[in-house]
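Researcher: Here's the sequence for the chain we discussed earlier.
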Amino acid sequence: MKHTYRAWSAIILAVAFLHISCSEDTGSLGVFPQEDAISTSTASFGVLSNDLLNAVVPANSTTCYLGKVIDPETDQAITATFATQFHTFENYNFPDKESILTKDGYRCDSIEIRLFIKNTFGDKNNPMKVEVWPLSMNEDKLLEESASLFTNTDLWQYVDDSQGPIATKVFTATDYIMSDDQRASNNYSDNVRIVLPREYGENIIETYFSDPQSFRDSYSFIRKVCPGFLFRTVSGTGTMLNLEVCTLNLNFRYYYKDLDGVVHNDSIVSALCRFAATPEVIQSTQFESSNLDELIGNEQYTMLKTPASICTELILPIDDIYKGHENDSISRASITLTRINNQDEDALNDDYALGIPTELLLVRKQNLNRFFEEHQVSDNQQSFTTSFFDTYNCYDFANISRLISYCQHEKVAGMKETNLTEEEWEAAHPDWNHVVLVPVTVSSTTDTYGYTSQVSVNQDLSLCSTKLVRGTADNPIRMQVIYSRFAGK
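Model: Thanks. This is the structure I predict for it:
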């Protein structure tokens, strides 16, 4: 009875408490105190823009370019030369030396390089001639993994030119040795096949049997077996190849050995030893172009041009944005960059019409080189990416408010730390509010939860060009800003 009485007492108290609670005034539930209410306001500011010719373009990339074309905007030749090294699997093994068949004194049946084409700019039927030069294994000319390579780096300094090119090849982007049906097959990819001397392949095999440790990793392979090659166009104009994959293929045959180690002299196996140019090793393209100064400085527009890397520089009006809003938060700052259509693009042959950069990076000018050298991705604070908006013919950065706030905080903190006036600090840091627009290629990945993240952001080295409306003092580019503040402040 005692326990039953206590239970009923608890229920009665709970019901009474519920009744009292329900009878209270609920008019203020869910309403912030007046001093915590948030108010917003908007404003528009002018942004100035300039051309920026950036000669320091990192050239380490997962793709390479080869060829020579005439730039329709400058009437000058753009020539692409590239160097590549090759990757080997760790502790690579050949069959036993005695089991490899020989012919004409060679264990190597053939050796070739395949340059697989991702896409082509220009005429696919235009004959081109390329020379293949071996890179040097001498320490004073070795292409080191730590080398800082740019599109204007002279790659010839890494070449072993003591005996001339190891091979030459006349080709067209469309391989007419293959039949139409073969080229139409799903298993076929456009490629350039370059045959190397059998002696080169024989030397690779002999090096393995004399020093197997030279194949233990790519570092040893490059220094002791194959340092790589330089490819340069020596004749022909009108074709530029964007190469996706480069492989070195060594063919040989050997007698089959079963699991018990017994060699069957009546069973011959044809083998392919493949070494590929991959992100683990260096791939670098050198571009040569001229007359770029003629393209910049127009009063109506700024340029975005690759691979020459003509960028557009923006001067953000951060002082104006914060004037009278020192205690406000910048919740949104958007800027739209309008593209000017090329008046003569319809008259150009489609094969020679320069493309429009599809993706742009907005990054602080002072961080530009470091961004690419350190292989960074956009952090939505000091760097942002966006894509070309074809419907409205523009590039739109929807919200760079974090960049505005970061730059302002950097200035205020810097003035306090150095005890400089605002004018003195800005004079010492002239690029503090400058950003650069750079055409890029962005690689992303999506996880199992549907979240997409960037894997890499590289400067676009393809042949692209476009014009953006210039921001001038009389006709600036407009930036829309939304401020937020608590009503009580």
